[in-house]
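Action item from last meeting closed. Structure (240 res):
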């Protein structure tokens, strides 16, 4: 029986990049239905634990929140592959017994329920300092750019001559202004459209940080740039 076409989920924003239909998800992830690949940027597992190890009083529970959100995406989309666009672990101090136990339990659960799901990590700057995830998590670790179909999966935003770049690293956010001095800052996806010329880079999109407690970098407007704000359970294409 032919596979039924995948419908856009509630709140997701459909886009067409590099000849493929994709979905920008309200959970700050990118879904490629045709290949059943989920792209996640900047998970930063153990960031709060790292701060606590340095003696700074920050709230706990963010690792469990991040893994729970990721599990909901896996259960709803049943991806064949998850590509993490860098910064899976925040730092070496993040590898506490509690964090490693939470990761091991999360991985074992999905081994049992999604045994064919592959995990790939494109090394980011925090991964270089934190070290690769434990081998028991069965995550394939690669350097950028990691080519997958028409896409170059990267951590750092960069140009690529033949592939459309999907990147993270910047934790982009945008500001919406209302009447008076009302202002709302939201995480966002950023699209830098294709420049002209036979040798020009193909284009690039920057994903918002998936992890909680990660902060955000205010994105400035630029010619050919499109922003997609995430908030209120949806993803919204902002006016140019």
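Sequence:
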């Amino acid at each position: 029986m032919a596979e039924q076409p995948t419908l856009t989920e509630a709140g997701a924003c459909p886009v067409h990049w590099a000849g493929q239909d994709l979905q920008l998800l309200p959970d700050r992830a990118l879904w490629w239905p045709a290949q059943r690949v989920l792209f996640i940027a900047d998970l930063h597992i153990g960031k709060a634990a790292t701060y606590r190890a340095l003696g700074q009083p920050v709230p706990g529970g963010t690792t469990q929140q991040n893994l729970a959100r990721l599990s909901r995406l896996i259960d709803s989309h049943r991806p064949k592959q998850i590509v993490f666009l860098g910064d899976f672990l925040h730092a070496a101090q993040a590898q506490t017994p509690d964090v490693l136990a939470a990761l091991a339990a999360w991985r074992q659960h999905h081994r049992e329920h999604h045994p064919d799901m592959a995990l790939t990590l494109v090394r980011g700057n925090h991964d270089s300092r934190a070290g690769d995830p434990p081998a028991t998590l069965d995550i394939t670790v690669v350097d950028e750019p990691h080519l997958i179909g028409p896409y170059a999966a990267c951590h750092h935003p960069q140009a690529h001559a033949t592939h459309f770049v999907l990147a993270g690293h910047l934790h982009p956010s945008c500001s919406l202004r209302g009447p008076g001095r009302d202002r709302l800052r939201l995480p966002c996806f950023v699209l830098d459209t294709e420049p002209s010329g036979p040798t020009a880079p193909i284009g690039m999109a920057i994903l918002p940080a998936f992890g909680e407690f990660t902060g955000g970098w205010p994105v400035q407007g630029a010619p050919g740039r499109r922003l997609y704000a995430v908030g209120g359970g949806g993803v919204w294409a902002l006016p140019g």
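Note appended to the action item: The radius of gyration is 18 Å.
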